[in-house]
Design a protein that fits this description.
Elements (H helix, E strand, L loop, with lengths): L23 H8 L7 H12 L5 E2 L10 E3 L4 E6 L1 H4 L3 H7 L4 H24 L3 E6 H23 L3
Parallel strand pairs: 3-4
Antiparallel strand pairs: 1-2, 2-3
Helix pairs in contact: 2-6
Length: 158
C-alpha cells in the first residue's frame, strides 16, 4: 500500500462538466504525446543495448512502472518528461494560462506519486535513477556512463 507523507492530491477529471475546456487543435496535439517509448527513452535504451547491457522495460509489477529495469542489479531508471513531472515547477506553474485548476493539481500529483514510488522502490532494495528528457537530449553519453559505472561496480557483488 502506498503511504503518502502528506494528503494525496486529488485531480478532477478533465471534462466540460468540471469546467475544463480545450480546443480541437490542442486536443489533437495532446493526444499524440506518448507516455512510454519516447525518443529520449528509445535512444537511452538503444545505447545500453549496443553496449551489451540487457534490461526489461516498463515492468508493471514495480511501483511507477519504471522505463528500464535491471533486475539482477536492483536498478530502475525513469526518463521523465519536463512538463508531466514538474521540472522547474515553481517557475513553470506561474506561466500556465489555461485550465490551471486542472493542470496544477495534475502535475503536483504526478510529483507526489514520483516521491512515493521512489520510496517504495527503495524499500524494495532498488536503486532509482531519474533523468530529465532534456538532459538526455543534451548529453546522453554522460548519463549512459553514470548507469554503466553503477552496474560495473555492482557486478562483482552478484
Amino acid at each position: 500500500m502506498k503511504v503518502y507523507s502528506e494528503n494525496r492530491i486529488e485531480v478532477l477529471r478533465f471534462n466540460e462538466d468540471n469546467g475544463f475546456y480545450t480546443t480541437t487543435e490542442r486536443s489533437k496535439i495532446m493526444s499524440k504525446i506518448k507516455s512510454k517509448d519516447t525518443k529520449p527513452e528509445q535512444n537511452f535504451r538503444k545505447k545500453l543495448w549496443n553496449l551489451g547491457y540487457r534490461y526489461k522495460k516498463h515492468v508493471k509489477e514495480l511501483p511507477g512502472t519504471p522505463d528500464i529495469v535491471f533486475e539482477k542489479f536492483k536498478l530502475v531508471i525513469f526518463i521523465d518528461g519536463e512538463f508531466w513531472h514538474g521540472y522547474n515547477w515553481l517557475e513553470k506553474k506561474q506561466k500556465l494560462h489555461t485550465n490551471k485548476k486542472f493542470w496544477i493539481p495534475k502535475i503536483e500529483r504526478n510529483m507526489q506519486r514520483d516521491i512515493v514510488n521512489n520510496a517504495e522502490l527503495g524499500r524494495m532494495g532498488y536503486e532509482v535513477f531519474r533523468f530529465w528528457e532534456h538532459d538526455l537530449k543534451k548529453d546522453l553519453e554522460l548519463f549512459i556512463l553514470e548507469i554503466t559505472n553503477y552496474i560495473e561496480t555492482k557486478k562483482g557483488k552478484y
